[in-house]
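#struct-queue
[09:14] JT: dropping the first one here, sequence first, then the structure tokens:
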Amino acid sequence: MLWSLAKVLVFVAIAIALTFGAGYILETPGEIRLAFAGREVTLQPIGFLLICLLAFFAFWVLLKLAGLIVATLRFLTGERNALSRYFDRNRERKGYDALSEGLMALASGDGRKAQVKAARAEMLLDKPDLTRLLNAQAAELNGNTSKATRYYKEMLTDDRTRFVGVKGLLAQKLEQGDTETALQLAQKAFAMRPKQDDVADTLFQLQTGEADWSGAKTTLQAKVRHGQLPRDVGKRREAVLALANAKLAEAEGNTAGARDNAYRANKLVPGLVPAAVMAARLHDDAEEGRAAVNGLKTAWAQSPHPDLAAAFAKLAPDESPAERRKRFEALLRKNPTHPESKMTAAELALADEDFPGARKALGDLAETRPTTRVYALMAAIEKGEGAADNVVRGWLAKALSASRDETWICSNCKTTHVGWTPICSACDAFDTLEWTTPPSTPDSSGTTAAMLPLIVGSLEDHSDQTAEAMSDAGGDGGNDTPEAEVRIETVEPANDPSKAPDTSAEESPKAGAA
């Protein structure tokens, strides 16, 4: 700005000087004589000024002619000038028109037209950062993967397009199922732009899919740090990663690593049931009984679960049913109104052959929360109290047709799992398994029959009578037909929670924690 002001001031000063000079000449009396080459010319002041103006104009014309001659020579020698710039602008305009039409064709799904326009834009424009991307995407739309790969690799040579090239190659490798190469490309893309959500998500998914729990933890922490993930969600996922790392370390024989990761997972999210169970087991193996008990109590207060009850029972495997029932009181007091607490207390009472106590512990669950497990417990209570067989069969019939109890279900694809895993085996989603009631299926009532002997004892091997009795029970809820009498040999309530067999998640959750 100062330079512009200086130029204006100089121009004004020159104009003022010329004006004063011309005025002085015009106002001065006399003539002006010019002598040159033996000749003398006398001029009036006004004539002298006119001659000066003509001389200045002629000099300006000569300068312009000289500039024209120089421009013509430059044009003839191929140097860039106004004429060449005109043709260049025309060529650029056509190139951008082709680029625009190619983008529109790409958006509308016309791959053939998009590729034609992309090639024309590449020929007319000197903009490889734009035309390479359009050519690559047009080639992909036409199914020409090799050509698209070539353009994406060319984009790696330019700093402005390197990230886009890596992402394009990453998408291709994911589509081809080459997860190993895709993981390497995702790591490069994440290193270039760690704040990009889709890149971080892709890298995290690939790392968890390859069981790279340490790498996934680093990516997860970066996502939380950059605000891409809420801190509470990040904390839970970090606990799940630590638990997965603990299981891997234990499988490899690294007991110290398993303990560190399991304890960290349990500390991050005390209500994460699998972490609490594993941490309690490792504490117990290290003769740290108090830490094991406290961890299970804390988890039970937040999320009562049959696996927690089974782990708590295993802390004292040789105790009597009465001793176990008394020891469990401290655990059940942490969440006494939860249905799992009531069912566990009922199972403990059955094990101690306290059938009225079992009925009292179960409360009104048969009316408010009727499930297979609740009805099976009622059948065991009735049998233990000496009820008629038709009453027991009525409860068993209800158990066969009742809603199934909670199990591990993927919230993403609704697949049922036998046990908890960090990744869904069906959809590969991370941390989507929830302990919840499965949806009802047409054959769900039949599959629950396998768990009934675990609660009420074994059925006698009367094939014809048993088949007919089950048919009656499924039809009218347990009519007492002499021909279809089912006799239950014994009630075996004293089931040891630590030895209770696991049942398939497709059949039912664990029959009892105790």
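[09:21] JT: and here's the second one, same format:
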Amino acid sequence: MGNLLKVADNISSGNLADRAVIFRNDEIGRLSGAFNEMAENLYDLINNLEDTVKTRTEDMKTSKDQLRLLLDSAAEAIYGIDLEGNCTFCNTSCIKLLGYSGQEDLLGENMHRKIHHSKIDGTPFSAEECKIMKSIRQNEGTHSDDEVFWKEDGTFFYVEYHAYPQIKNEKIVGAVITFTDITGRRKREAEIKYLSCHDTLTGLHNRRCFEENLKKLDNPDNLPLSVIFADINGLKMTNDIFGHSAGDALIKKSSEILMEACRKDGSVARVGGDEFVMILPKATNEDAMKVLSNIKDIFSDSRIAAIKCSIALGSNTKTNSAQPIEEVLSSAENAMYKDKALNRKSFNMDIINTIIETLHNRSPKEKQHSITVEEICGSIGSAMDLPDTEIKRLKQAGFLHDIGKIVLEEHLLSKADLSEEELEKMQQHPVIGYRILNLFDTTLDLSEGVYSHHERWDGKGYPKGLKGREIPLLSRIISIGETYERVLSSEENPNSAGREKAIQVIIDGAGKQFDPQIVDLFVQMMNKQ
């Protein structure tokens, strides 16, 4: 009540207008302060927002850079596509594998048309068939390792890829594809598959593949079904004398001949070291005989090193379904072994004759040497009153005593002064000759004589350093005959003076290089002549 009276007094006293002004000014001041405070707060908020946006932008850029770094560090190639198949991103491995220079070459491009447009054989590959596009349509991941991607230069590579739908806000927006070049792997797999079924030396089917193939061919539709067994003659000798490279060449040559003689619908397999089998569907026994004849004709004109190619053959024909194919194979193989046994002797002599003929064709001087030594050995044998069979053996050994020179380079056969290395090679020829002659029944009894024909009576010869009567008689006779011929043939005019010189060399070597008793007999024989 007292306050009201004071207000009434103020009003009455004329202070009301002043008080209103004061009140208004106080309110304006208070509002102005509040506004300034709000302005400052808003300013701080804007500044903080700018910093937040900047920070978040930098964080997003960092995350994006980290994602790009992660993508580009991946060994696998990676790219993304939208619903239309257009490229939305790609990593460095993707760009490199496809042969492009940068991501700008791929971004926005339809990846199916760009890299997945054709099959291995070049035929078009539609997007409807594409597993990658199907993964988007069907909302499920997919995988493939039997397709190709095409590079920028128009070449392709075998690819293994995985494709997964890309989902955002529960909607499919595209797909992510990872892929690797598996060309090397496919090549290795093909090599392993090939080696599992083929002989590495000849390229023919091996035994495993032959047996599988035979099962497929052994059906009534292929009757009559003929089988030919073949076995190379002389492979062991070729390996022993001329080395395994020559043996491999003989095997390869034989396989080529068999393939040449085989019918187009037939097949050839190498089922052992020197054994082959040929399968001839719808081939009668007469047809098989024609193939056999053709094989022999081609072999007769073929040689490897100094070996005349030769092969033993046998065949059999399945004419009805009741015949077990195993019996047919066994009969063909037995026929081949029979052919080998029946022709062993003639084949062996063919090999010996081919080797010595090849040697003499290389060096006519060696041919004349062999003929002369053969004659001298025969004459010495007669002078010693040896049996005719022994004289025949002596002559044969005299003719073949240098057969081991077949392994020497041609220039060494006529070279007079040999280096130490060349001399060492030359001194191996008795050993090689022994190996050759020891392989065959018809020349087995000559091998020891040929092996020791460079031994000396005083024990200073080679290859074993035998002494005196340790040296086989055959070798002691050949030694005199060959030395005489070498000295005589070295003379420009092998007349009577040359003969005397050659005889004197033999006399001087008595008791040193030669058996003195045989020397006396030889000199008497030559004086009579």
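[09:30] RK: nice, looked through the second one.
[09:31] RK: The two ends are 186 Å apart (CA to CA).
[09:31] JT: good to know. DSSP finds 20 helices and eleven strands in the chain.
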